[in-house]
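Memo to structure team: turn this sequence into structure tokens by end of day. - J.P.
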Amino acid sequence: MRNRILMLLVVCISQTTLSFAQQNPLGLWYSKPAKIWEETLPLGNGLIGMMPDGNPTTEKIVLNEISMWSGSPEDPNNYDAHKNVSAIQALLKASKNDEAEKLVNETFVTKGKGSGFGNGANVPYGCYQLLGDLLLHYQLPSATITDYTRSLDLTTATAQTSFRAGKTKIQRTYYTSFDKNVGVIQLHQNSSARQTVGIAFARKENIDRYSLLNDGILVEGSLPDGKGNKNLKFAGLLKVQGKNLKVSKKDQVLEVSAEGNLSIYVTASTSYYGQDPNVTVQTNLAALQLSNADKMYRNHVNAYQKIFNRVELNLFGNKSNTRVPTNERIANFYKDPTQDPDLAAIYYQYGRYLNISSSAPKISNSLPPNLQGLWAHQIQTPWNGDYHLNINAQMNHWGVEVNNLSEYHQPFIELIKRIAKTGEQTAKAYYNAPGWVVYMMTNVWGYSAPGEQASWGASTASGWLCNHLWEHYLFTGDQGYLKEIYPILKGAAQFYDHTLVQDPKTGWWVTSPSVSPENAFRMSNGKVAAVVMGPTIDNQIVRELYQAVIQADSILAIKDSFATSLKGKLQAIPPPVVISQSGRVMEWLEDYQEVEPKHRHVSHLYGLYPAAFISPQTTPAWAEAARKTLAVRGDEGTGWSRAWKILFWARLQDGDHALEILRQLLKPAFANETTYQGVGAGTYPNLFCAHPPFQIDGNFGGAAGIAEMLIQSHNGYIHLLPALPKAWSKGQVKGLKARGNYTVDMSWENGKIIALKIKGKKGNVRIFENGTYKDYKVR
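Reply from structure team:
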């Protein structure tokens, strides 16, 4: 076998038997092994990930490490770009958008190779990659396989494969420990006969050193920096143990034979964390208590449940649905979501599970989930598996605050802090401006320049990122944190304040050049363009950012003259919403003809969500315009687009329509799940969201949307059950968070609150309950 083995594998005897019911009310289960990656079950502890396919005889477990990035730091800024910005703006003022876009593409894009148009594995931008495939070849006592199930228990972050091989009952249990940075595969059989397993770890490239040891394998490698050299180093260690263990070595495969049960431990690390990865994996191994597998598992469950158990959701569905395999439940939900509300609760908790599993906020220099979270199965991950900043990385974090996972915002906040530093150079290069700016994508190396093409790469993201900095404060009320991030908010606002130009037709001060993310319009001359002045999303973001700086200055009593100056400038920028003659929210300053009326991005409704400018209570006319906008955009779209629409309809307080979009989101991605043909937007059999291909943002956005149907707090009060569908007329939830650092538990019947408990700062808090505003006394 020529593929090199990578990772730490420790095989030892274990008496632990972990059993799961296939009717687990909060889990996924299947009656067949996974044939494709999108059927495998994701496990992760925020650093390492595993996805087993559950094949009885030859099993593949895809392994990941969150920092496995090729590429390297670079300076892709075009330092002559600012010399051309006035000419670009002049063309836009003259309504020559097509000529302006041509000039942007020539002078105002990245100077380097950028993202490689999504093929960044061998350019400096880099690419997030899988770590490799763990291959297990089992010698079973019989070729006859019966009673097969595989499952994922969301309450314990544990997967299992169970079957009979002849008369022998076999259980395989998998988890990535939240206590120690190790993945575990436990192989149990109800027999003391010897088990024999061939073990290998395969990766196709970038192995620098491979050493076969007396009791395992040491592997070291490095990924290309995109400049002809190597950069990030990775390491793995394999070691075997067991009762009466026999080990043979052939073609880089360990054949392990031992009496009774076996356990496999897996770990890896990279130099991203500033340490020698070889030392790290050795340390990880030394920290394990291999002689006490039961205690190791208990510690894992306890550490995980301290986080996961903060929120409980019960929608009181028909419990007989738990006897239906998850892939079939998905199909049934798409046909009629009212018959299985519990699947919505599972999908919600699955989103929280993925948040917890794909980021490690307690680890210094930890990374937030990327486009695929933690899980990838390719060297060249789609779109580089990077951080798209025109919605996707943000959507990954929309639910963390309300879903009581506030600390899982922190790795993203730290990433924002880092790119704010590199973004200062980008602000100078493209506008000769103070402050900082970042455009629509970034990576672990701090990339902040525009993309390769104006149509998608020219939208600034710094203001949108500041929404996350501000929201974290609104939910936590942590003034120490607010003081820490105030300079970053201010720096983003300084950039916009310096670069806004006056639109000659309206007199408003707007961004230029910019785009409404990835969308285009038809000009009066019939040509198609994307570059404009002041797209609606920018106008909403700039206003939101200015207001945040003003409020933060007031809260902290800084008395910053810059913050004071922004108060008057709020009158000079466009209002959040301009309504077109069709009654819809305009996407651009002019009511251009739409090239793609059902475009996946609905960026001009940023003011509805995540911002709070549009509300049925405070701005009913704008809310009606938003409804008309969504009616034209349609209910379908890519996976993440459907998730965003759930949030839109939740904010419009239409629960039945939000449930309809959730139904669309859970549409089976494969038209034929036997042949895996006809892939489209929706949900894969393992509940991963299909863009397609897989993007995790739809999972996180869908979970955030479900929470938003149950609680909202953006209008200055806590709105209970603002968008409850008729099908969820009875339910209970515990642990949801509201702005102001309140925790809300509630039960309802017939759509009405019957029990309520709010915890937080003592005193009165304004709520909207059962159609009535009232004060609730927090004790």
